[in-house]
């Protein structure tokens, strides 16, 4: 694919690096001279120092021949203007914009489905439009944008998903299947410590698969002779309700999550609180006193029972605390500094079942999570800006690490991928991809048994969803049209994946 990226910030450069690694033709436009120079030195692609809304720059970047345009500048307005400009000049171009302003996203949803948002059924309830992950690509709306990417929603969705799965480790869900991929660190002295994988079935009776092992700096696709050890990060595929039982073999205790603390009352913290309190929508008031309604919550999925749960929100800004208290009367809102040790002692923060840190400082998020876990908090989730500290945070004991940059890049990549590919997730040190795809007519792998399936870089088909039945495939599995499969593959094998699976409309 040919992709033009506008903006060489953290997201733009990470996205470009991953696309280049996967052999795509990438052009990057950046208005800031220093950023453009830095990107040019780091990336093996065309980097243009110019304004993204310049037609000359778009032409020089090859927009006329490109398959997709991704706008990730620091300005929502600029991202939308560039997409609109491209829509009029290059109508066949796929256009993706990162937008942080809630009202712009709301406007896009009103444009794409005004009848669903504004009309009411006989029960008086407003019919909500489907979440973005549940829809196919639509015709661009008035704004000329195919997909909006909202970073706060992407991060909140990932955190809510982790909480629903017990926050015992990083959990990855797949569409239309009860199976999930969970990552957990092996504790010293646990049943997994010293386990040879050929003996795994004798210990774990549930239908499951050890799909990946991270060990220090290495990422392993395990075999029967692989021996698990303390400190290994093990990725296990199993049904959601069985995953936590399997985690117990790695040394995780199964403890209900009832008392939850959220550090940081910003956008992500509010979305998490909204999800945990099971709000279908809420009414609040902005600073002008006008009533406003939530429209972001329908993008989040909430399955957790609300009973017996207590939410505590800790925020330093007094004015924001007043807004939070009015917005979430069921929650306890504390105007305090989480780094104040006397506050931690007085409020008995060490008695929390779960602590979620969502401040704007990723260093504070990590330190707070690690410190309070050492004080007795059962589980912790830390939100990071980038992915650089993720491995460090996990080694320090943070149970779940959510990288804002990574969830945004993964979301963009999922929209960019073609050939029936429904999702893309990067694991470990970035050398392994998980790809969700649908087998379409004419794909070369159709009617081929799994025993004959080989990737030059190595890979593993770990899950198949066929006619609403999900299963871990064995050697006698044969690829069929319409199958949804999930596979591990080494990064850089995308061209081979598209060749084998990419036929069809």
Report on the structure:
The protein is of the alpha/beta class and 505 residues long. It has four domains: 148 residues, Rossmann fold, CATH 3.40.50; 76 residues, Regulator of K+ conductance, C-terminal domain (Alpha-Beta Plaits, 2-Layer Sandwich); 147 residues, Rossmann fold; 85 residues, Regulator of K+ conductance, C-terminal domain (Alpha-Beta Plaits, 2-Layer Sandwich). The chain is 30% helix and 24% strand. The chain is built from 16 helices and 24 strands. The strands form five sheets. Strands 3-2-1-4-5-6 form a six-stranded parallel sheet, sandwiched between helices. A six-stranded parallel sheet has the order 16-15-12-17-18-19, with helices on both faces. Helix 4 links the parallel strand 4 and strand 5. The longest helix is centred in the N-terminal third of the chain and has 14 residues. The two termini are 16 Å apart.
Quote the distance from N terminus to C terminus.
16 Å
By helix and strand content, what is the structural category? alpha/beta
Number of strands: 24
CATH architecture of the largest domain: 3-Layer(aba) Sandwich
The figure for the number of domains is 4
Low-confidence stretches: 111-138, 280-305
Mean pLDDT: 80
Question: So what's the CATH class of the largest domain?
Answer: Alpha Beta
CATH superfamily of the largest domain: NAD(P)-binding Rossmann-like Domain
Largest beta sheet: strand ordering: 3-2-1-4-5-6
Q: What's the Cα radius of gyration?
A: 23 Å
According to CATH, what is the topology of the largest domain?
Rossmann fold
Main beta sheet: strand number and arrangement? 6 strands, parallel
The rough form would be described as: globular
Our estimate of the beta-strand percent is 15-25%
* Helix proportion range: 25-40%
Helical stretch tally: 16
């Amino acid at each position: 694919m040919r992709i033009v990226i506008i903006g060489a910030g953290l997201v733009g450069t990470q996205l470009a690096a991953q696309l280049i690694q996967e052999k795509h033709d990438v052009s990057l436009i950046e208005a800031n001279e220093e950023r453009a120079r830095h990107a040019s030195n780091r990336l093996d692609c065309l980097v243009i120092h110019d304004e993204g809304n310049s037609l000359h720059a778009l032409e020089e970047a090859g927009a006329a021949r490109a398959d997709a345009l991704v706008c990730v500048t620091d300005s929502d307005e600029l991202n939308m203007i560039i997409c609109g400009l491209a829509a009029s000049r290059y109508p066949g171009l796929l256009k993706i914009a990162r937008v942080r302003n809630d009202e712009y996203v709301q406007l896009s949803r009103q444009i794409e489905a005004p009848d669903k948002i504004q009309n009411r059924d006989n029960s008086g309830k407003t019919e909500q439009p489907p979440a973005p992950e549940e829809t196919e690509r639509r015709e661009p709306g008035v704004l000329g944008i195919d997909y909006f990417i909202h970073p706060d929603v992407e991060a909140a969705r990932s955190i809510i998903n982790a909480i629903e799965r017990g926050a015992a480790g990083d959990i990855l869900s797949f569409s239309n299947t009860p199976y999930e991929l969970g990552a957990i660190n092996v504790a010293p002295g646990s049943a997994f410590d010293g386990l040879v994988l050929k003996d795994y079935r004798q210990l774990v009776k549930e239908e499951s698969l050890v799909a990946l092992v991270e060990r220090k700096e290495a990422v392993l696709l395990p075999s029967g002779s692989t021996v698990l050890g303390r400190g290994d990060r093990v990725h296990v595929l199993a049904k959601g309700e069985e995953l936590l039982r399997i985690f117990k073999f790695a040394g995780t205790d199964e403890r209900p999550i009832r008392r939850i603390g959220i550090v940081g009352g910003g956008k992500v913290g509010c979305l998490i609180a909204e999800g945990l309190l099971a709000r279908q929508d809420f009414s609040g008031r902005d600073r002008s006193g006008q009533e406003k309604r939530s429209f972001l919550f329908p993008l989040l999925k909430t399955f957790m029972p609300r009973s017996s749960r207590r939410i505590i929100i800790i925020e330093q800004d007094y004015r924001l605390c007043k807004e939070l208290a009015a917005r979430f009367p069921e929650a306890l809102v504390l105007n305090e500094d989480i780094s104040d040790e006397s506050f931690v002692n007085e409020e008995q923060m060490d008695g929390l079942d779960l602590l979620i840190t969502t401040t704007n400082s990723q260093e504070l998020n990590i330190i707070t999570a690690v410190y309070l876990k050492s004080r007795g908090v059962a589980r912790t989730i830390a939100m990071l800006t980038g992915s650089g500290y993720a491995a460090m945070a996990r080694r320090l004991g943070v149970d779940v690490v959510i990288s804002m940059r990574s969830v945004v890049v993964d979301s963009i990549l999922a929209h960019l991928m073609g050939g029936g590919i429904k999702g893309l997730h990067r694991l470990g040190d970035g050398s392994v991809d998980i790809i969700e795809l649908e087998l379409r007519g004419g794909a070369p792998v159709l009617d081929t048994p799994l025993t004959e399936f080989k990737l030059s870089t190595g890979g593993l088909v770990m899950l198949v969803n066929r006619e609403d039945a999900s299963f871990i495939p064995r050697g006698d599995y044969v690829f069929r049209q319409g199958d949804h499969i999930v596979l591990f593959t080494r990064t850089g094998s995308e061209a081979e994946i598209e060749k084998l699976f990419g036929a069809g409309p």
